[in-house]
Amino acid sequence: MTLGRILIADDHPLINEGIQIALRVHQPGYVVDVAGSIADAEVLIQQHNDYRLLLLDYELPDSNGFNGFFKLQHLLGRVPIAIISAHDSKQILSAARAVGASGFISKRQPLDAIVAAISMVLRGGSFFPPVDDGADEAEQLRKRIDSLSNAQRRVLMALAHGDLNKQIAAELGVTEATIKAHLSAIFRKLGVTNRTQAILMVRPLTGAMP
């Protein structure tokens, strides 16, 4: 009997293979699945209801910054998501905390360290490398993002990518009036008054990072 499944959403074969082999040795009770895109991950999540962890490369071609994170978070509910990335700037780390990730794991670490971080998240903990600056700002942004519903998060990310209300409505399968209502709630929760201010606030989440 297995303990559940772990999903790796990453399009780098060598990274996937290394993590899979290490998990089979150190976490033999879990089945490990691999997806090369957000779309593939969505299919697997809809097929299986026993995922215990998602390891997500937020730079997948169809992720659009953290928009892919929000899509998969909506499907997974309370299942922890750990970001894995070769880029570990303070800005990205702060953004990962803000959106509610359970961890941030740098691909530049030794494989043993990566597996140790994964094990920590599987046990219900969190793992983030220490960040000296910007902790307060990240925490404030995290609280504001937490106050948004899943639909509002997706609207916000689409807004940040320059989509019009009509485009966002089509993507979510709702009316433009619903999108306007979401935007009003988003502005209120973020403490801003217009689209430009909202976009500037969440710029670290859009993937447009140095």
UniProtKB/TrEMBL annotation:
Organism field: Sphingomonas montanisoli
Residue numbers bearing the 4-aspartylphosphate modification: 57
Stretches assigned to the HTH luxR-type domain: 141-206
Protein name, UniProt field: Response regulator transcription factor
Keywords: DNA-binding, Phosphoprotein
Residue ranges annotated for the Response regulatory domain, each copy included: 5-122
GO molecular function, one term: DNA binding
Lineage: Bacteria, Pseudomonadati, Pseudomonadota, Alphaproteobacteria, Sphingomonadales
Pfam families, sorted: GerE, Response_reg
Presence of keyword Cytoplasm: no
